[in-house]
């Protein structure tokens, strides 16, 4: 994972509905992504499209990622895909622990198995954490600590060079820039996550782990989140499905 670059990850989720449309969307962002030298763009389409989109690109400024993987290397696991398999079609990153996967029953323990298997296979892991709501007693911080701690159980220090933490408060996902986190709140969370990682490992390791934000990141709020929120990049959902909006985000991040 390149250092000193902003990481802008497109989470296309289960969109678009055909390979033709996926190619069109990718070609709509390819030029801007190829020209933004201070940004590493990661496109996470539905897994079935990775291989074909990969054929349309040959540089280093754009990488591809999966939206999930299974934790076993191979075998009788109908419907699942292993980290090695997804790597073999061109994925370098994987999103794990996304709230939409957790909503279907994915536990911290399952996320941990996937993190271990993906790092072992050499994938860069984008580990998502985030609370569904905030409470006056700040119990959500305990919830986030638990998510991080369990997801990273038995993960060795050396493997952490390929880890990215995506802070995605569920209350901010799929809305508008006005509902997203404020830069001040983001800065607090940035410090909190670094502190938690310091307690789990040490300060040097914590400082090197990029923290990105996801939850209605749009052209109108990314600038202040980068400047005041100190984030290292974004996980972009709905705004990544509009080439014009996503390109705008890439250009803003490129200036920081
Ligand atoms: C997401 O679900 O990962 C996400 C960031 O979505 P959105 O940008 O649509 O809030």
Task: Give short descriptive properties of this protein.
single chain; 256 residues; alpha/beta; TIM Barrel; 8-stranded parallel beta barrel; 39% helix; 16% strand; binds phosphoenolpyruvate
- Which structural category fits the helices and strands? alpha/beta
Intertermini distance: 18 Å
The proportion of residues in beta strands is: 15-25%
Sheet with the most strands: spatial strand order: 1-2-3-4-5-6-7-8
Count up the domains: 1
- Largest sheet data: 8 strands, parallel, barrel
**Name of the CATH superfamily:** Aldolase class I
Helix share of residues?
Answer: 25-40%
Integer-rounded radius of gyration: 17 Å
Describe this structure in words.
- The mean pLDDT is about 95.
- The protein has one domain (about 5-255): Alpha-Beta Barrel (TIM Barrel).
- The protein has about 260 residues and is an alpha/beta fold.
- The longest helix is centred in the last third of the chain and has 18 residues, at about 185-200.
- Helix 1 (about 20-35) packs parallel to helix 10.
- Helices cover about 40% and strands about 15% of the residues.
- The protein binds phosphoenolpyruvate.
- Phosphoenolpyruvate binds near residues 174, 216, 217, 237 and 238.
């Amino acid at each position: 994972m390149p250092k000193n670059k902003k990481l802008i990850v497109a989470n296309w989720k289960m969109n678009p509905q055909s390979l033709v449309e996926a190619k069109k969307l990718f070609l709509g962002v390819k030029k801007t992504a190829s020209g933004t030298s201070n940004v590493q763009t990661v496109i996470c389409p539905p897994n079935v499209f990775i291989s074909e989109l990969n054929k349309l690109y040959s540089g280093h400024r754009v990488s591809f990622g999966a939206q999930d993987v299974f934790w076993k290397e191979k075998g009788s696991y109908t419907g699942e895909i292993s980290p090695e398999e997804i790597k073999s079609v061109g994925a370098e990153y994987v999103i794990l622990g996304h709230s939409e996967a957790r909503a279907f029953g994915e536990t911290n323990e399952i996320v941990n198995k996937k993190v271990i298997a993906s790092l072992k296979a050499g994938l860069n892991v984008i580990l998502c954490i985030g609370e569904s709501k905030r409470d006056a007693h700040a119990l959500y911080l305990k919830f986030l600590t638990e998510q991080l701690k369990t997801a990273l159980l038995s993960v060795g220090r050396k493997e952490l060079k390929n880890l990215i933490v995506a802070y995605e408060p569920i209350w901010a996902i799929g809305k508008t820039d006005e509902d997203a986190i404020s830069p001040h709140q983001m800065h607090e969370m940035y410090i909190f996550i670094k502190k938690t990682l310091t307690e789990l490992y040490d300060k040097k390791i914590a400082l090197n782990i990029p923290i990105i934000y996801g939850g209605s990141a749009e052209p109108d709020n990314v600038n202040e989140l980068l400047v005041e929120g100190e984030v290292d990049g974004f996980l972009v959902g709905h705004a990544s499905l509009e080439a014009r909006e996503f390109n705008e985000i890439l250009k803003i991040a490129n200036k920081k």
